[in-house]
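Q: Got a minute? One more chain.
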Amino acid sequence: MATIINMPRLSDTMEEGTVATWLKNVGDKVTEGDILAEIETDKATMEFESFYDGTLLHIGVQAGETAPVDVLLAIIGDEGEDIAALLSGETESTEATAEVAAQSTEKVESAEAAPSAIPEGVEIINMPRLSDTMEEGTVASWLKQVGDPIEEGDILAEIETDKATMEFESFFSGVLLHIGTAVGQTAPVDTLLAIIGPAGTDVSAILAAPPASPKAAISEVEEAPVTPTPKVEPVAAPVATVAASTPNTGRIMASPLAKKIAKEKGIDLQLVTGTGESGRIVKRDVEQYTPAAVSSAQPTVFVPAGQEKQEEIPNSQMRKTIAKRLGASKFSAPHYYLSVEFDMDAAIAFRKQYNSIPDTKISFNDIVVKAVALSLKEHPQVNSQWFDDKMVLNHHVHVGVAVAVEDGLVVPVLRFANEMNLPQIGTQVRDYAGRARTKKLTPQEMDGSTFTVSNLGMFGITEFTSIINQPNSAILSVGAIVQKPVVKEGEIVVGNTMKLTLACDHRTVDGATGAQFLQTLKEFIENPIRLVV
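A: Always. Here it is, folded:
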């Protein structure tokens, strides 16, 4: 009997998924545990395993295509089985299911938005919906205990659904602060499973808050008629492991058990050859691994001169998110720009002297970030955020630093940057930049900025404007330092200058307010000794 496999919801915030690649083709035999496809979510690219044996009869979402959660992804059944009637009935069912899922998500989000005191950096993990028919889950085991450090990708627990027992991964890093559902207990979908956040965080206010009732909210939506698909059993949407690698992307495909054994034995999975499905690394590969030299060569592609050539690159989830957020910012916030030019002679001398200290190296960007942080402390209006019903003046300073990556742009956050010294800022920025380019940043490290600095000076760009990273009220664009003739004490001399442009949201920052902030910033940068006293 044919089994429908729907697009799974692999994270709490996932609304749609993009099929990065299919590892099986129509007509291929499928065994339980085989990797069917790699699916790109709003969090990461993940392996999607089959829980059924049979033949892949139909692919509903092609590689590179994007589809909402709970719509037809594939069909597995007996070889030669007629699924024509199933496909003709699935169209209406899929559309209705997608509409119900969207309404359900909206109601659940509304229910979860009830006021509660959630400390900064804390993430609430709810019981996931791991199959289309799942209404509740039972915790079979916890692999982490309260107080344990958690890294993104760690297996938190094993959860028993109406279909199977599945591993549940963390999408966040921090410390396990609270377990809401103990081993052996059963809880409805979307109720509290665990809380992750910074060590020592008090979560008593979260636990004391009235619980949301998403199940009740969902029941209202479930009354909407949905065309049933007869004789079809929806497949469980497994919690997939983060797909490590394909040869083209540098990620490593390995089973969770293989990863665990490799970690215990200190084996680098990049050096292990996989013998599983599509080269996937499995338990035996790790156990039988012995160090060996690995070499590979990429073929040279020759393109004749004058030949027209085009390449279509599907938009990644990151690129879609950037387009959505920056488009909303540009066309909703009334931007205006203030440009200034600073004398950098003193900053150049200061940096040279500072870097003469053994084992010390700071950049001009570190100087700018520190000066910005101190200036924001004096101008909370520029350190503000705009919301539809209020304006928030932040008296803490969390500076976002824009970092270019292959898929677009990320903004890791320096928390309490005004309290950091220059070497600490430099070390943190270099660490963030390196991990951003290897996609190792956690969501918490990119959340909570109150102001953003974007620096293209290292690329030789002398002046540019940026789009505000909402809900923040401003962003600073930093250009390159250039040598040019300047007038000092009535004489023309060779000087070093740098242009900066402040983009402001006129709803929160008036022109005079932005100008006063830049005057304060000028005092810090042109008199850098103030940064260390």
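A: Residues 107-115, 213-249 have pLDDT under 50 and may be disordered.
Q: Perfect, thanks.
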